[in-house]
Amino acid sequence: MADSAMELEALPQSGERVIWERIGNTEWELAEIQLDVHEEVALWSDNPRLQTAMMEGFSTELELEDALRASKGYDNLKKSILEIGQMQPIYVQRTKTGKHLVLEGATRVTILRELDRKYQTGKHEGVFRRVDAKLLPSHFGEKEIATLLAQIHVRGSGVRAWGRYIEAKFVHETVVGRPGHPAVMNQSQLAEAMGKNVSWVSRLKNAYEFALKFVEHVDDDPNPRRLAAENFSTLEELSKARGIGPHLRDFDNSAYDELREEVFEMVRNNVFKEYRDARFLKEFHDDPDVWDQLKSGEEHVANRLARQIQDKHSSPKAKIAGLPQLVRRTIDRGDGEFDDEDVSALQHTIDLIEDQVHEGVHPYRLAIKKATRTLNKASKADVLDLSSSDLSEFAEAYEYFTSLVKSHSSHAGV
């Protein structure tokens, strides 16, 4: 958030146009102004946009600009500003030094500075010298700044998305805090500001805490935070993996330290080609041979193993095995509107499988046992439900079968 050591003032100056803008649940009075991009604005070193551009601190404005040039989307925005100019104003707060701290829009400022330095003469001379800005009032605090940033970069459609790692870092620092900056909202308040549900906020918070543990594990890497940012989607999937994720996040239980270290080494060695591979972590862990392959550190091995599991789960045999549970869940939810056609379809499937299993020989022994159980359970209502054609077909089939028994079976007298 903005440096709390900076004293802010926001007295309207002559020529400033005042507008009202809704930020969060409040209507704010803002002044629309133009500022010299070199002399009148200062970049904010805590800008969330910088978090994946460079994971270390900054000591000069030039370092901040270099980091912003490396951020995603910089070149496309630069081309747009060169061709049609600045489309969206930035948000600033006025400081007692005379500078305006850029709380939102640092990339646009950096582009305007770059273009102004480039075009010292010709038709573009001076065109990029000034930036359109909205001046936030002095009592617009850290909570309001968090709401503004969430509204611009997370909430709704068409937002200028930060990316998953930046969102998670923003969530964590807003609801947990960071050195020198306590939490400014609880999870429910941030969820409302972001237009998300509380569980979404909680998942990102947990994932970022898991990523921080990964940073500790790879602290011998030249830039462990950058490594965590680059692998954040995978780390997030691992942190919530079915059956394993809760153990990995149980940081106070030493029983899971070795498991967590093994998983972190897998991430470091790039065994997960994409974050979706991490969804099979439980299946991997349940098979000692597979787990040893992952621990070997072979690059992208998890992707191959995940595809093998997917193929196994999508086979007809696997689908058939899952049918009873699927039907039971459907019935329990009250969604099951099954009828005789469904029973007939399943019976036809059973017949096909039995013909394949007992090729050339119909498994009549099993069928007769089932028919016997069915007849013994018959009630008056069952009989009344049968049509004359049903009874006729049954009588003809029974007569045919008993004639075969009398002619060929050693049990004919039974």
What would you say about this model in short?
With 414 residues, the chain is α/β, with parallel strands linked by helices. It has helices spanning 61-69, 74-84, 106-118, 142-153, 164-175, 187-194, 198-217, 224-230, 232-239, 245-248, 257-268, 281-286, 288-295, 301-313, 316-332, 340-357, 364-376, 380-385, 388-408, and strands at 17-23, 26-36, 41-43, 90-94, 100-104, 130-135, 177-178, 181-182. The longest helix has 21 residues, at 388-408.
Provide structural commentary.
The strands form 2 sheets. The chain has a 6-stranded mixed sheet. Strands 7-8 form a two-stranded antiparallel ribbon. The chain has 4 domains: 17-140, Alpha-Beta Complex (Conserved hypothetical protein from pyrococcus furiosus pfu- 392566-001, ParB domain); 231-313, no CATH class; 319-369; 378-414. The chain has 414 residues and is α/β, with parallel strands linked by helices. The protein contains 19 helices and 8 strands. It starts with 16 loop residues before the first strand and ends in a 6-residue tail after the last helix. Strand 7 and strand 8 form a beta hairpin.
